Every structure is written in structure tokens, then in C-alpha cells.
Amino acid sequence: MGGCFSKPKPVELKIEVVLPEKERGKEELSASGKGSPRAYQGNGTARHFHTEERLSTPHPYPSPQDCVEAAVCHVKDLENGQMREVELGWGKVLLVKDNGEFHALGHKCPHYGAPLVKGVLSRGRVRCPWHGACFNISTGDLEDFPGLDSLHKFQVKIEKEKVYVRASKQALQLQRRTKVMAKCISPSAGYSSSTNVLIVGADRHLPYDRPKLSKSLDTQPEQLALRPKEFFRAYGIEVLTEAQVVTVDVRTKKVVFKDGFKLEYSKLLLAPGSSPKTLSCKGKEVENVFTIRTPEDANRVVRLARGRNVVVVGAGFLGMEVAAYLTEKAHSVSVVELEETPFRRFLGERVGRALMKMFENNRVKFYMQTEVSELRGQEGKLKEVVLKSSKVVRADVCVVGIGAVPATGFLRQSGIGLDSRGFIPVNKMMQTNVPGVFAAGDAVTFPLAWRNNRKVNIPHWQMAHAQGRVAAQNMLAQEAEMSTVPYLWTAMFGKSLRYAGYGEGFDDVIIQGDLEELKFVAFYTKGDEVIAVASMNYDPIVSKVAEVLASGRAIRKREVETGDMSWLTGKGS
Fold first, then answer.
1. Where are the beta strands (DSSP E) in 52-203?
2. Contact present, 237 and 168 (Cβ < 8 Å)
3. pTM (global) more than 0.85
4. DSSP class per residue in 134-153
5. Tens digits of per-residue pLDDT, 357-390?
């Protein structure tokens, strides 16, 4: 693994993760159809794990037999700012030359396995070309999201003008490193100064990879899990999946559960997420009309859609991903949308039209500039969707993706500030108006540093990761501020679209490349400034723009109008 690890100081933490009150219907039942037994009795004391379990990670001091060492190149083979994949026999390593120094790291992004050699090297870190995760080249540590794990860092030495890399065979094969964490110490273990960190927001599963819900609908919940249950046990993190919070009492620092049980906290993180909007038209109660909120929703949609007629309402990210995934499984897929083109508000008219054409080439039928006026059933099950344009579309399954609202109803009487739309406003440190109460994820508005601290809501996976980390650092008095550049992606028909920045309010779109061939980059501008970028088949342009924006440098409209992007695509910075 290279280098030595000092023993972490024990941080005295007790963490609970619980579920806020939501309309969950059948989801309240466990798999057996009965309500799960409560983990706690109402006596104000929680149960704690006293386990010495350790997760399998490579030993920090591997034995010589476990190590492999090889000369990988001549010192002059790499220029400053260059990266190269090199082979060590047991696996590949990413070799980086920066400011005259060589660094050797894991070569794949631990998130989804992207080759980091195709990413962007800048300011002492490498940014993944696919989804924008950033890793420190000196330590391998994850510095920006998505993903949870860091890279292995390997030993480098220079002898007789040759660069040698020494690495643990196990680390070479794992390609990911879970950082050493402090274990939670509970009050019952005799530590009176314990901090009780309570995280409100989950569903009935262990934390899982939510973006896959609409991109790969038949993936099972256990395949989506971000960490195995042993991880939570080993670090004393208790996950209560059937416990619903109905109110928060900030004066006494207690949350109240649906059954009246109360739990004290020292620091509180609110991450309730959002609830999908539903149709309010005639016939809305018929069966087989779905929103996608849980793995069970997604699995059910795929099961019912096979060989049948599907109507998707809403041509945003969720709706279009679902439509794309179901084309090979359903008999027919139709999309109903109020706007003229899909993604219009987010990606603009021209990009939206190019993507629409890709869908039409894959047999998806569009009904644009209209909405659903009625859902017609037969024996209680959906049979037809009637549009305001009077068109009647055959439908056995309907998936509704028309947006979401923050799931913050349980906070209304709490004294924790909510805005007029129900979002929780936080400051740069992710703290609410109440000291010690933090919030993160889809339900918050926060100041976006590189857009003049404009208060925004960005309901994307990478932002939720970043906000969670900043909130945690501030709970531990480490004084961190939100500074990440928003980064998101979508995948449809085996093609990925990447996006970085915050494009709301764009007044022009500058497109380079070929839209018809879906090999393009689109720069979204407001006035004289580039505020967002999207691309398909143009890596690592979006990661490069994200790095430039993260460095604090503004990109001017005139710089992207010329078509000469050498200033942007050159390796290094």
C-alpha cells in the first residue's frame, strides 16, 4: 500500500440513521408482510454494538512476499502534467508526473471503474473522466465525489534514471481503498462525553446507489448497497430502517418517533430527500401507475412492463432514463411531455431535439406539448391514457416522472426554518437556522460558491455526497465549506451524457462538434460567462471544465465561441 498509517485517534461518536415520516403505504411492512419489530424500547436508551469486527482491507504493512516491484519507465518518458498506465504483472498502476515528482496510484476510479489515465490532472489531483470524482495524487484520498472509496498509493523510487514502483499484490487487485475510520464509542462503554449524531433520512434498505434505480430498473436492492451490513456494525453505526420520525424538538434536542419513542441527539443531520409528485387527473387511483422512489418500485415496473405498452409521463432525467431502459423489454414505450422537447429547460432546445431523435430511432413515441387528462382502467387496472389533445394512448403501465417536492412536512412545527416551497435553507457549512442541526441532499437550498453564493437546490447524487461530508466536518468542528462544482450524468441506450456547472437561467448555448452524431460539447452561457457544460462522446471535456470552474477561474463566452479549445483540453493546467 505504500507509506505508513498512524493509528487514528478514537473519535467519540454515536450515530443513528433513522427514517422520517413519509407516506409509505405497503412499504411499512417488512418482506414477511408484518411490521418489523422495533429495535428500541421507549426507555430513552439505545442499544449499542460491542463488536471488534474488522472489514477485510489490505494490511497497511504488506509482507515482502505480497509485494511486487518493477521498473516501469525512464524518468524522461513522462513530461510534467502527464499520466500513464503502467503494468506491474499483478495489475495496472496510474503513474503521474507532477512538478517533477512521480506518483503511483490505483488506475481505476473506485466509483464505476473509469480509467483515470483518461481523466484530468490539475492542482495536485486527478479527476475522473466519467463522473467527476477527484483523488489527491500525493495520498490517493478521495477529495470530491461521487463514490466512497479512495485509491491505493504505491511507493515510487528513482534509480539510474529509471522509475520503479513497488505495490502490494492485494492492493493492485482490489483497486480501491476504504479509508481508516475511527470507530464509534457508545455511552454504555463508559465514555460520558460521547456525541450522539443522529441522521434522519433513509428508506427500508441500507444506503444504496440511487442513480441506478432509473438507469437499471431490475437491479435488486442487495446489488445496489454502497456498503455491506458488516461495515456499519464494525464502526458502530446503527441503521434503523423501520423507525419513522414525526417531530423534532430542537429545544430539548430530541426526535419523536411515530410510536412515541424519543431519542436524544447532540448533533442532528436532516436528509429526508424528496417525495415524487403524482398525477391529479381523473382515474389517478387505477392500478399500475407508478413513481420510482424505491428499488421495489423499479423492480415492479420492469416486471409488469415486459411485452406490454408503457407510457412515461415527463421527459426529464428520470422519465427518459426509464423510457430508454424499457424499450427492449416493453412492447411499446410512449413519452408524454408539456415542453416542446425533452430536457428543454436543462439542456436547451437543440440538445433536447438531438436526444429526442435518438429515442425515436429506438422506437419511442413522443406526445409533446400536452399532458394527461385521464387514466382509464379495466377491472381496476390501467388500459388507456387520455391526453388533453384528445389522443388516447394504449397503456398497461404508466411511470410518472414530473418532479418532486421536499419531504419536510415533519419539520413544520419544529422551529427549523423552511422556505415557501418546503426546502430547508442552510449556510455554506450545511447548518440550518438552529445550531447543531444540519441538513443535506435533495431537500436543501444552499449557497453555491462559484455562482456568487446564490441559494440553489441541486437534487443530484454528487452534491448529496459533498454536502454530507461538509456537514460531518462541521459537526466535528473542522470548519468546512461547500465549494464543489455540481457534476451529473445520465445514461441512455449505452450512451452517456455528462454535465457540470449550474445552468439555470442560461441565455445562450454554444455547441461544438456534431449534434447529429451525438459527439458534441454544449456550453451554457449567461451574459458573458459560461455557467455549465454538457457533452456526449467528448471526454474528458466536462471534467476539464469542472476543474477550471473549481479553480475559481471564470470561462468567458468568447473563449468557447471560436471552436479552438486547446486552452481547455490540454493535459495538466
1. 67-74, 82-87, 92-98, 101-106, 120-122, 125-127, 134-136, 142-144, 153-159, 162-168, 195-200
2. no
3. yes
4. EEETTT--EEESS-S-B--E
5. 999 999 999 999 999 999 999 999 999 999 999 9
